[in-house]
């Protein structure tokens, strides 16, 4: 068991922090997961798709909104449950959630916005400009986006429900947004105070533990050099490597304990130290 290297700040009440697994994608090869694959035909790790929940008494923050049934069909992903249904397993009604962080606007992080009718969405300015600007004239650049998600985002904007951020921002004590572009133009990671200290939700700043460990990015990216610099930024933000949680690695489900026996394989607690070290997880 990896012990935390930093005690929670005595002046900040800790959040409960969860990863909720809602979809998977198998049959991948090494070239699907690493920009520089030694053997592109080698089998690759599956992708797990997560949303995250930070909860402190009556404060609830949902991080990302995942994708739904139509996107799963169109992109050949296996949808295990809709994100709203995953939240319901923890007693959270998506219709009542008031604060949602969108780490970026790719299809698997910013779908199902309509399931959160009461939410205010937090987004980086650069991400909004990229997803609705001239870069989207390039079919490859717009591939990770879903036009219907972007339309839903625009509707939320015109309804006065988007809060833009430029760079790092503390939303409430113990809950920070950090701009780490590279995978997308305006990706933001989330840093949360928990009972084991600060935990950094990397989102797609690193898909797998191994992307960061090998300095070998996931092949869907906006700026490779910026993405590589982002690895150093994640390290600066976290008390240790074991306090960084990647965005799509199935190893997260092995490393952290389930929220309950009934939720094994569905929801894990990230505010508890992982049972495996970073080195073991990054193999």
UniProtKB/TrEMBL annotation:
Cofactor(s) required for function per UniProt: Zn(2+)
Superkingdom: Bacteria
Record Pfam families: Lactamase_B
All residue ranges annotated as the Metallo-beta-lactamase domain in the record: 48-248
UniProt-recorded Gene Ontology molecular function terms: hydrolase activity; metal ion binding
InterPro entries: MBL_superfamily_lactonases (IPR051013), Metallo-B-lactamas (IPR001279), RibonucZ/Hydroxyglut_hydro (IPR036866)
Assigned keywords, A-Z: Hydrolase, Metal-binding, Zinc
PANTHER family attached to this UniProt entry: METALLO-HYDROLASE RV2300C-RELATED (PTHR42978:SF7), QUORUM-QUENCHING LACTONASE YTNP-RELATED-RELATED (PTHR42978)
Family: Belongs to the metallo-beta-lactamase superfamily.
The protein's name in its UniProt record: N-acyl homoserine lactonase family protein
Classification of source organism: Bacteria, Pseudomonadati, Pseudomonadota, Alphaproteobacteria, Hyphomicrobiales
């Amino acid at each position: 068991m990896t012990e935390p290297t930093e005690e929670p700040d005595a002046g900040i009440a800790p959040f409960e922090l969860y990863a909720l697994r809602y979809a998977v994608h198998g049959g991948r090869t090494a070239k699907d997961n690493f920009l520089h694959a030694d053997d592109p035909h080698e089998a690759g790790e599956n992708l797990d798709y997560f949303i995250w929940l930070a909860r402190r008494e009556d404060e609830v923050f949902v991080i990302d909104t995942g994708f739904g049934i139509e996107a799963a069909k169109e992109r050949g992903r296996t949808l295990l449950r809709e994100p709203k249904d995953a939240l319901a397993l923890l007693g959270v009604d998506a219709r009542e959630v008031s604060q949602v962080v969108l780490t970026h606007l790719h299809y698997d992080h910013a779908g199902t916005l309509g399931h959160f009718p009461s939410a205010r969405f937090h987004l980086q300015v650069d991400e909004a400009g990229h997803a609705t600007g001239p870069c989207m004239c390039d079919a490859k650049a717009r591939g990770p986006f879903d036009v219907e998600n972007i339309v839903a985002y625009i509707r939320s904007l015109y309804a006065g429900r988007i809060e833009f951020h430029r760079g790092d921002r503390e939303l409430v004590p113990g809950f920070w947004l950090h701009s780490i572009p590279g995978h997308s133009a305006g990706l933001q990671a989330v840093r949360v105070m928990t009972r084991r200290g600060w935990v950094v939700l990397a989102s797609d700043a690193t898909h797998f533990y191994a992307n960061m460990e090998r300095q070998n990015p996931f092949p869907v990216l906006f700026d490779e050099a910026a993405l590589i610099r982002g690895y150093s930024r994640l390290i600066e933000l976290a008390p240790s490597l074991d306090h960084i949680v990647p965005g799509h690695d199935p190893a997260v489900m092995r490393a952290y304990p389930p929220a309950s026996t009934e939720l094994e394989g569905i929801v894990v607690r990230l505010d508890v130290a992982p049972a495996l070290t970073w080195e073991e997880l990054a193999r």
